[in-house]
Amino acid sequence: MKHSYLPLLMVLLIFLQAPLLFGDDKTEEIKSLIKIAEMKLDKLKKSGAESFASEEIAKITTAINDANAAIKAGKEKKALLIISIGMAYFKKVDAKKELIDAENELNQTRTRYNQKKESEQ
User: Fold this and answer.
1) What is the rounded CA–CA span in Å between residue 16 and residue 85?
2) Is the CB of residue 27 less than 8 Å from the CB of residue 71?
3) pTM here?
4) How many CB atoms lie within 10 A of CB 26?
């Protein structure tokens, strides 16, 4: 899960640094990025991530909605920036999940250590 969004973030970075890659029709490319964010958000919700990342999921949802509104208003650059911010929250969700997993592993290790220590006494 740690690197699952890295390729997408790299693509976003390229688009942010080289707007000429879009050519004349930026809107379709940005809509594609929004669609990717929507699919990833749906996957996150189905995985139960709302139990530990509800704030980030709300911010991603807001970013998707705001980016769609910016597209409708003809503000492609704004839409791209908004959806890029929303995509960054996916990375934060991944980091939270990784932290939770590390804490669980630490607690399990402590428990095993304490059990072994007690059995030796």
Assistant:
1) 12
2) yes
3) 0.74
4) 17
- How far is residue 3's CA from residue 7's CA, in Å, rounded to a whole number? 8
pLDDT tens across 60-83, in order? 999 999 999 999 999 999 999 999
Say if CB 52 and CB 100 are below 8 A apart.
yes
> How many Å apart are CA 22 and CA 88, to the nearest integer?
21
CA-to-CA separations, 88 to 34, 48, 52, 73, 75, in angstroms, rounded: 13, 19, 17, 23, 20
> What digits encode the pLDDT tens for the residues 95-121?
999 999 999 999 999 999 999 888 887
First CA to last CA distance, the chain: 41
